[in-house]
Amino acid sequence: MLNSIIRFLYSINPDIIVQAPSRINLINPLDAVEGDFWMPSVAINGKTNPLSVFFYIKKIDQESRLKVYELKKISNKCSFEVKSEEKLSISRENFKQKFNRENKLIFATISRFLETYSYFKENFLKENIEIGLITTIPLQSGLGGSAAIIIAILYGFAKFFNIYKIH
Question: Which residues pair with 37 in a beta bridge?
Fold first, then answer.
């Protein structure tokens, strides 16, 4: 499955690809934080499923957009379908309207980054980009799928816009 995902992502010809693995808590299976104490956790890969979020960014000529893909596995073959596609309108009101929709976590993450980091906002506004996301982490599985999405997005933008010296 991992090789299929990588081949698919490279066929899109992105400028960057980020993989953020799922995680499992070693002490408390319900949450990573217990009171004032952080619980140790570890990133995991599945044997046949990479249990990860994959995020890409590429420059485009058209208006910026978001694509979320669904992975379909039939026998040993994987296919990818666009589950949702939306314009990435920059206005704050437009982002707020999307906080109650399917891709709310993605828009909330971008919105928070825009609000808190002026260098990112300045550069984000200048670029026409396509961002895409594929996740193989089962929904509500306790494997940190939401955290993996947030990490993939933030790391991807930091790398794409050269915000930090990332190797």
Answer: 34
Is CATH 3.30.160 the right assignment for the domain spanning 2-160? no
- CA angle 143/155/56 to nearest 5° reads 85
Whether the Cβ atoms of residue 41 and residue 86 lie closer than 8 Å to each other: no
In this prediction the pTM is: 0.83
User: pLDDT per residue over 112-123, tens digit each?
Assistant: 888 888 888 888
- 77 within 8 A of 141, measured Cβ to Cβ: no
Q: Within 13 Å of residue 93, how many CA atoms lie on the same side as its CB?
A: 0
Q: Predicted confidence band at 36 (pLDDT cuts at 50, 70, 90)? A: low
Report strand pairing: 65-74 vs 41-44. unpaired
* DSSP 8-class letter at 140: T
- How far apart CA 143 and CA 146 sit, in angstroms, is 9
Q: Where are the domains of the chain?
A: 2-160
Cα 153 → chain centroid: 5
Reported as a single tens digit per residue, the pLDDT across 99-150 is 667 888 898 898 888 888 888 888 888 899 999 999 998 877 777 788 899 9
Residues 104 and 127 sit within 8 Å (Cβ to Cβ): no
